[in-house]
Amino acid sequence: MSEDAPVNTGAVSWPDPYSAGVAVRRMQTKLHLWAARYAGRRFDDLFNLVYDPAFLTVAWERVSTNKGASTPGIDKVTAAGVEARDGVLGLLGHIREELKSGSFRPVEVRRVLIPKSNGKLRKLGIPTVTAYCAVALVW
User: Do the beta carbons of residue 88 and residue 60 sit within 8 Å?
Assistant: First the structure.
């Protein structure tokens, strides 16, 4: 065995946003091609992608650059607050472990009524940064 061979130590390697974006786009392209080529194909093991470091990094980029990133959820945390307080990698590592173990449970969303031009109100749900990051790749 070569001394340069990677060892599975359980340590997570977090990619930079650009590399993560390339890796995610590559996987999305593969999945799209497979689905288009084989109409009856089943994708049974996609959950591993949900907690993949590259996918979580891309999710964070989508969450932190979203127009509503400065609006806190019911936990009063914003994207800027995460960056200043816990650090992005701390949050992503926490989300990753909860997703892997199956213990992730999103909390309720903050409900706000937004006035419309016709005088009626529109319901708006504001998720927590953690919940939003965990589901950002689904969109």
Answer: yes
Positive or negative torsion for Cα 8, 50, 98, 59: positive
Structural contact between residues 68 and 126, judged by C-beta atoms closer than 8 angstroms: yes
Torsion of CA 38, 56, 48, 36, to 10 degrees: 0
86 burial type by CB count under 10 A (0-12 exposed, 13-18 middle, 19+ buried): middle
Mean pLDDT of 113-123: 94
Q: State how far the Cα of 29 lies from the Cα of 31, in Å rounded to an integer.
A: 5
Give the C-alpha separation, 131 to 8, whole Å.
29
Residues 6+ apart with CB under 8 A from 94: 130
Rounded Cα–Cα distance for residues 77 and 93 (Å): 17
For residues 21 and 15, give the distance between their C-alpha atoms in angstroms, rounded to a whole number.
9
The answer to whether the CB of 126 falls within 8 A of the CB of 71 is yes
Q: Are 71 and 111 in contact (CB under 8 A)?
A: no
Give the mean model confidence (pLDDT) for residues 89-97.
Answer: 90
Q: What whole-number distance in Å separates Cα of residue 21 and Cα of residue 74?
A: 29
- Output the pTM of the full model: 0.78
